[in-house]
C-alpha cells in the first residue's frame, strides 16, 4: 500500500473533493482519481461513495482514513527525527498559528528565533484553531496554537490567559456596566468569527449554558472588520481583552464577560507522543522564556 495513494485519499476527504485535493498535493485531478482507484483495488472495497460531484466515506473508507492519517503523521515524525541527526544548525520548524492574537504574541518571537537559529527553515500556516488541529493531527505541522481545552490526543503548553470582552456601542445601556453576563445579550444579534475559529465555540458554549442560542448575523476572519460591524451596531462582537484594547475606538466599549470560564486560553499544542524536533523544542523554550508567568 503506497503512502502516495493514502495521501491522495486523505486529502480528497479533508479538502472535500478531487480537484481541491489535487491542488494540495501538487498533481492533477486525474492522478488523484487514479491513486484512489488503486487504493480501492488493493483493499478490495470502495472507500468513497460517489454521488454526482460529491463523495462520502464508506465504512471501509472511514477505517482507511483514520489509519492513513496516523500512518502519514508517523512518516512525518520519522523524517523529522532523521533531520535532527544533522543537528540544530539546520532543520525545519512547521508552525501553525491562528489569525487572532498571533501578531501580538508570536510575531516578536520570530525575529529572536531567526537570530538564534538562522539556518532553521520556518514554514508557517495560518488558520483558525479548529483547522490547525486537523492539520496537526495529520502530522503536517509540528506545533500549532489553539484555544484550551483541547482533545486528550494533544499535549500543550500555555501561552496566555485573557478575559473575553463584549464589544458594545457606547450609547448601548449595557455598555455602562463594569461586567456583563452573556444571558443579558440574548436579544442582540451576534457577530462572530468564521466557523474555523475556536473562539466561537467558547462564546456559543457560554450562551447554551445560559439556555439560549444566539442569532448570528455576520461572520468574518478579520478583526478590524468585526470591530467595524460592532461600531455600526450590526451586533455584539467578542474578543480577548488583549486584542480589543490594541484597537481603541471612542465609539465602542469593551465590557468583560462575568462568567468565570469566559477566558481566552491560548496554548501551543502538539500530538501526544509525537516526536518533537530540536527546532520545535527550541520554539517551545522561547515561548516559555517570553511568557513565563502566563
Description:
This protein is an alpha/beta fold. The protein has 3 domains: 3-70, Orthogonal Bundle (Arc Repressor Mutant, subunit A), CATH 1.10.10.10; 82-159 and 265-290, D-Maltodextrin-Binding Protein, domain 2; 162-264, Periplasmic binding protein-like II (D-Maltodextrin-Binding Protein, domain 2, 3-Layer(aba) Sandwich). 43% of the residues lie in helices and 24% in strands. It has helices at residues 3-15, 18-24, 29-43, 59-84, 99-105, 107-116, 129-137, 198-209, 223-231, 241-245, 278-290; strands at residues 48-51, 54-57, 91-97, 120-126, 143-147, 154-169, 190-193, 216-220, 236-240, 252-256, 263-271. The chain is globular, with a radius of gyration of 22 Å.
Q: Helices and strands in order, then pairings?
A:
Blueprint: H1 3-15, H2 18-24, H3 29-43, E1 48-51, E2 54-57, H4 59-84, E3 91-97, H5 99-105, H6 107-116, E4 120-126, H7 129-137, E5 143-147, E6 154-169, E7 190-193, H8 198-209, E8 216-220, H9 223-231, E9 236-240, H10 241-245, E10 252-256, E11 263-271, H11 278-290
Parallel strand pairs: 3-4, 3-5, 7-8, 7-9
Antiparallel strand pairs: 1-2, 5-11, 6-9, 6-10, 6-11
What is the averaged pLDDT score? 89
Level of helix content? 40-55%
CATH fold-type name of the largest domain: D-Maltodextrin-Binding Protein, domain 2
Structural class: alpha/beta
Helix count equals 11
Task: Summarize the model shown.
This protein is of the alpha/beta class and 294 residues long. Helix content is 43%, strand content 24%.
Features of the shown structure:
24% strand; alpha/beta; single chain; 11 helices; 3 domains; D-Maltodextrin-Binding Protein, domain 2; Arc Repressor Mutant, subunit A; 294 residues; nine-stranded mixed sheet
Amino acid at each position: 500500500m503506497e503512502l502516495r495513494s493514502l495521501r491522495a485519499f486523505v486529502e480528497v476527504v479533508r479538502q472535500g473533493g478531487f480537484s481541491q485535493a489535487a491542488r494540495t498535493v501538487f498533481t492533477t485531478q486525474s492522478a488523484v482519481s487514479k491513486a484512489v482507484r488503486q487504493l480501492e483495488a488493493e483493499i478490495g472495497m470502495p472507500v468513497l461513495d460517489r454521488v454526482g460531484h460529491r463523495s462520502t466515506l464508506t465504512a471501509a473508507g472511514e477505517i482507511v482514513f483514520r489509519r492513513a492519517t496516523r500512518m502519514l503523521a508517523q512518516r512525518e515524525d520519522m523524517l523529522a527525527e532523521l533531520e535532527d541527526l544533522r543537528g540544530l544548525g539546520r532543520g525545519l520548524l512547521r508552525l501553525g498559528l491562528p489569525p487572532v492574537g498571533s501578531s501580538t504574541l508570536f510575531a516578536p518571537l520570530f525575529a529572536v528565533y531567526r537570530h538564534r537559529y538562522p539556518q532553521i527553515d520556518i514554514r508557517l500556516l495560518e488558520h483558525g484553531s479548529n483547522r490547525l488541529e486537523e492539520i496537526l493531527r495529520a502530522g503536517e505541522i509540528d506545533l500549532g496554537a489553539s484555544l484550551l481545552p483541547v482533545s486528550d490526543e494533544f499535549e500543550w503548553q500555555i501561552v496566555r490567559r485573557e478575559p473575553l470582552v463584549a464589544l458594545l456601542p457606547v450609547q448601548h445601556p449595557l455598555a455602562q456596566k463594569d461586567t456583563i453576563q452573556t444571558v443579558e445579550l440574548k436579544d442582540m444579534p451576534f457577530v462572530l468569527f468564521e466557523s474555523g475559529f475556536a473562539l466561537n465555540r467558547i462564546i456559543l458554549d457560554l450562551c447554551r449554558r445560559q439556555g439560549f442560542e444566539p442569532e448570528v448575523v455576520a461572520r468574518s476572519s478579520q478583526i478590524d472588520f468585526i470591530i467595524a460591524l460592532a461600531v455600526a451596531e450590526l451586533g455584539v462582537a467578542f474578543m480577548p481583552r488583549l486584542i480589543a484594547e490594541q484597537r481603541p475606538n471612542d465609539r465602542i466599549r469593551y465590557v468583560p464577560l462575568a462568567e468565570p470560564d469566559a477566558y481566552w486560553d491560548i496554548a501551543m499544542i502538539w500530538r501526544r507522543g509525537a516526536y518533537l524536533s530540536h527546532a520545535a523544542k527550541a520554539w517551545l523554550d522561547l515561548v516559555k522564556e517570553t511568557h513565563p508567568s502566563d
